[in-house]
Design a protein that fits this description.
The chain is mainly alpha-helical and 511 residues long. It contains 19 helices and no strands. It has helices at residues 3-36, 38-54, 65-75, 86-113, 123-135, 140-148, 152-175, 181-205, 219-243, 246-254, 256-291, 296-333, 341-366, 370-395, 398-424, 428-432, 436-455, 461-484, 489-510. α3 packs parallel to α6, α12 runs antiparallel to α13 (341-366) and α14 packs antiparallel against α15 (398-424). The longest helix has 38 residues, at 296-333.
């Protein structure tokens, strides 16, 4: 299977799974709000962001494993069974992660003890989650290896199984009266199931990559790996600053009750924005593999095509959510949980900027510029947090949305685009020029979506669906020439041709 086919297959499974999770997840939110109340549900949302910080305790050594696995496979001409150095890489990573577990347990204990008194209902469920997280911490290595081997559809399927089990257990225990503890127990069940499935996959399909013993690292190897891991860890910390701090800031400054309207207003775009994010994550191992032997001209075309694809998807999300968000939140959880049109616009603007930056950041990461990327993202995260804290205390939840826009525009986008231009052998204008025609079309469509949002906010699902579908059709018609034009057209045209060839066959098969 070619890299492109692996990516497309992984995306197909991933997107299908996310549609299922989204539909059930929307119902689950209303269910939990009704059964647990706004305060307890807000505390659980904060707990999940706290957990994001604990995930950084591998000091980046697991974070670089997918890329190193892809490098090793690329050096072996794409044949994992010929990558003789891969078992040693996995063994050394496992040994280092096991060394880190006592530190992780200590940090988790300190965080648990330091829970604010007004968050007391969170203490027991967070303790359950933290204990499980520490115990199953090494199993993240299995997921990282499978990611590096580009087992993308399998990982998406496991994600769905984990979510389905966690959701089923959570709902059952909430009905049985376990309260917020039910969410923690459901989360634990999902983690255990995922770890078991990762292990079974590697043992049955890729036994040859698993080390027979945990290789010891020389001082030079340890230094090299920890240096790489350090910069990846810094980058991961910065990502947590950007993606897993807004609810904590709002919860501490304004209280857990203020978290829920912000979360509900952002819910639709949060769900949809994962689609382009999944695209970039799916393509990242292939970029790392290409780096091992592809010329810079080819890398430049690939990176520009990815940027076009991501921004096309991101723009469609912007227009659809802008047009229907008020009606959607009202239909879903009630008008009192809607944070307002201004918050919606700012959240969507931040999303588009972050998507653009994500394409550049993943490219920089695939090229091994860990230090530059990490320092850039950390600076962005610090600026975002400072601006968010100041503005949330003065302007309310809207300040968190402004903070992420300021960080992206002042720090990440300029730096990452500059580095991407250097690595791909092009100019900054060379990266931006293919996006100009996309930009004016997007501005025109966004203006139309704004007009719809300000004049009409129906709360019936059928009407909302019709508005959203109509927006997608108009957006697709206006943007199709860009998708069909190179460099993105290099990948789109063969897919379209394949579909055209299959349609007559399907017609004949159904006669």
């Amino acid at each position: 299977m070619t890299r492109t086919r692996r990516i497309l297959h992984g995306l197909a499974v991933g997107y299908t799974n996310q549609v299922l999770m989204t539909v059930v997840g929307l119902w689950l939110t209303t269910f939990l709000l009704t059964r647990l109340g706004q305060t307890d549900y807000g505390l659980w949302l904060i707990a999940m962001q706290i957990l994001s910080y604990l995930m950084l305790m591998d000091f980046g050594v697991v974070g670089i494993l997918p890329r190193e696995t892809a490098f090793a496979t690329g050096r072996a001409a794409g044949q994992a069974d010929q990558a003789t150095d891969l078992p040693g890489i996995i063994g050394r990573t496992t040994r280092m992660v096991l060394w880190q577990m006592p530190i992780l347990a200590l940090v988790a204990g300190v965080v648990w003890i330091g829970i604010p008194s007004d968050w007391e209902p969170l203490r027991r469920p967070l303790g359950i989650v933290m204990i499980t997280f520490v115990v199953f911490f090494p199993f993240r290595i299995l997921q990282a290896v499978l990611n590096g081997l580009q087992q993308l559809s399998f990982l998406s399927t496991v994600s769905t199984v984990r979510w389905a089990l966690a959701t089923s257990v959570t709902v059952g225990l909430v009905i049985a009266g376990f309260g917020i503890d039910a969410l923690a127990i459901g989360w634990v069940v999902g983690q255990v199931a995922a770890a078991a499935l990762w292990w079974i996959r590697l043992r049955t399909r890729y036994r040859y990559v698993l080390p027979k013993r945990l290789a010891r690292s020389s001082r030079a190897q340890l230094k090299e790996w920890l240096t790489k891991g350090f910069w990846v860890s810094v980058g991961q910390l910065a990502q947590v600053f950007l993606a897993a701090t807004d609810l904590i800031i709002i919860g501490r400054v304004l209280g857990p009750e203020a978290v829920v309207p912000y979360f509900c207003t952002a819910k639709l775009l949060t769900v949809l924005r994962n689609q382009p994010q999944l695209f970039v994550e799916t393509a990242s191992p292939a970029l790392s593999e290409l780096r091992a032997g592809a010329p810079k001209e080819h890398l430049s075309r690939v990176c520009t095509a990815i940027a076009q694809a991501i921004l096309l998807i991101s723009g469609s999300i912007f227009c659809v959510v802008l047009a229907i968000n008020e009606g959607f939140v009202t239909w879903w959880v009630g008008s009192d949980q809607y944070g307002g049109f201004a918050l919606t616009v700012l959240l969507l603007t931040g999303m588009v900027l972050r998507h653009w930056n994500t394409t550049a950041a993943y490219t920089v990461y695939a090229f091994g510029r860990d230090r530059r990327l990490s320092l850039t993202t950390l600076s962005d995260g610090i600026i975002t947090i400072i601006v968010s804290v100041v503005l949330v205390s003065r302007m309310g939840p809207i300040g968190a949305a402004i903070g992420t826009i300021v960080g992206a525009c002042l720090v990440s986008l300029p730096s990452n685009l500059h580095t991407m231009a250097q690595e791909t052998g092009t100019t900054l204008w060379g990266l931006i020029r293919p996006l100009v025609s996309l930009g004016w079309r997007f501005a025109l469509l966004a203006a139309g979506a704004t007009a719809v949002a300000l004049t009409w906010a129906p709360s019936r699902f059928g009407i909302l669906f019709a508005i959203g579908l109509g927006t997608v059709i108009i957006y697709g018609a206006l943007m199709w020439p860009i998708a069909y034009r190179d460099p993105l057209g290099t990948y789109v045209r063969p897919v379209v041709a394949s579909v055209r060839r299959r349609v007559p066959r399907l017609r004949r098969a159904t006669r």
